C-alpha cells in the first residue's frame, strides 16, 4: 500500500495524514510549516469497499444520507449486505466522457420511461421495462428477469457464479439505487455495477463505471465480456441521449422540462433536493 502522495509537478510529498513530509530543497525553506502547508482535510467514510468523501466543514449524517438512500430504495440497508460488495473484485472499468450536465445523467438513471425506446437489450432481459411505465423507486422492488433469460448478459445467456449472500428473493432480479448526489449502484445476482460521476463543467461529466465480481471469478480468468457488454451498451445509449438533451436544453426555445409520468415523481423530488442544496 502506498504510504505517501507526491505532486507530479514540484514533487512535494505528503503522508497519509496529509502532512508535508518532503519537498525539494525544503531544508532551505524554514518558513514552510509542514502542517500548515499540508493537504486540505476532508471527512471520509469507507463503505462497500469505496471511500466516500464529504467536503462540508460539518458533514451530514452518513447514515441519514447515503445509507438512507439505500434504505429508501431497498426497504432496509441490510438488503445490500448479501451482495458482499466490499469483498468483490474489480473485473472491468470503463470511463465515459459525457457532454452533459451531471443532473441530466442522474435524471436519466432515475427514470425508465425511456427504456422501451432506447434500451432493446435491457428490455429483453428485463421485460417489465418494455412497457414505458417502469419505475425503479418502488421500495424493495427488483425488476424480474424474463422467463427465458438465464443471466444478466447482453444476450440473456447464463451469467457467472452467483454471489453466495444473495437471497432467493433477490435471485433473478435487478435493483437500481441512486445515492445522491452522484453514485448509482446496480445489483444483480452475480455482479454489481457501480457508477460514479465527476462533474467537469456545467455541460461535461466523467462517469467511471466499475463491474465487480467474486474474487474467484476474476482470478479464474472467466470471460466477462457478455456480462459487461449489457450495461456498457445501456451506458452508451443513455449517454448519447443525455448529450442530445443537453444540446436541446441550451436552446432558447427550451422553457421547461420534466418527465410526464405520474410514477416518476421522485425526479421532481430530486429537483427539490438540488434546489435545497444549492439554494
Describe this structure in words.
It contains seven helices and eleven strands. By secondary structure, it is an alpha+beta fold. It has a domain at about 90-279: Naphthalene 1,2-dioxygenase Alpha Subunit, Chain A, domain 1 (Alpha-Beta Complex). The strands form three sheets. It has a six-stranded antiparallel beta sheet, with helices on both faces. Strands 1-2-3 form a three-stranded antiparallel beta sheet, with no helix packed on it. The mean pLDDT is about 90.
Summarize the structure.
By secondary structure, the protein is of the alpha+beta class. It has a domain at about 90-279: Naphthalene 1,2-dioxygenase Alpha Subunit, Chain A, domain 1 (Alpha-Beta Complex), CATH 3.90.380. The chain has helices at about 60-75, 100-110, 115-120, 120-125, 215-220, 225-250, 265-279, and strands at about 5, 15, 20, 45, 50-55, 90-100, 145, 175-180, 185-190, 190-200, 205-215.
Amino acid at each position: 500500500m502506498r504510504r505517501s502522495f507526491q505532486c507530479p509537478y514540484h514533487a512535494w510529498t505528503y503522508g497519509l495524514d496529509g502532512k508535508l513530509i518532503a519537498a525539494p530543497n525544503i531544508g532551505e525553506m524554514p518558513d514552510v510549516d509542514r502542517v500548515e502547508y499540508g493537504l486540505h482535510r476532508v471527512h471520509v467514510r469507507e463503505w462497500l469497499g469505496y471511500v466516500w468523501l464529504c467536503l462540508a466543514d460539518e458533514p451530514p449524517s452518513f447514515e441519514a444520507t447515503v445509507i438512507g438512500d439505500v434504505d429508501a430504495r431497498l426497504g432496509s440497508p441490510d438488503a445490500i449486505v448479501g451482495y458482499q460488495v466490499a469483498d468483490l473484485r474489480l473485473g472491468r472499468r470503463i470511463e465515459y466522457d459525457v457532454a452533459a450536465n451531471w443532473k441530466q445523467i442522474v435524471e436519466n438513471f432515475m427514470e425508465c420511461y425511456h427504456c422501451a425506446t432506447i434500451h432493446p437489450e435491457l428490455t429483453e432481459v428485463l421485460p417489465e421495462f418494455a412497457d414505458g411505465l417502469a419505475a425503479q423507486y418502488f421500495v424493495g422492488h427488483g425488476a424480474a428477469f424474463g422467463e427465458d433469460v438465464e443471466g444478466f448478459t447482453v444476450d440473456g445467456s447464463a451469467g457467472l457464479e452467483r454471489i453466495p449472500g444473495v437471497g432467493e428473493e433477490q435471485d433473478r432480479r435487478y435493483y437500481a439505487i441512486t445515492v445522491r448526489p452522484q453514485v448509482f449502484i446496480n445489483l444483480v445476482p452475480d455482479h454489481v455495477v457501480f457508477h460514479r460521476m465527476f462533474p467537469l463543467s456545467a455541460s461535461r461529466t466523467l462517469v467511471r463505471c466499475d463491474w465487480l465480481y467474486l474474487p474467484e471469478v476474476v482470478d479464474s480468468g472467466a470471460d466477462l465480456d457478455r456480462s459487461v457488454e449489457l450495461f456498457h451498451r445501456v451506458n452508451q445509449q443513455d449517454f448519447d441521449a443525455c448529450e442530445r438533451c443537453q444540446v436541446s436544453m441550451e436552446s432558447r426555445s427550451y422553457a421547461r422540462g420534466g418527465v410526464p409520468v405520474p410514477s416518476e415523481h421522485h425526479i421532481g423530488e430530486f429537483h427539490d433536493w438540488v434546489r435545497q442544496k444549492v439554494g
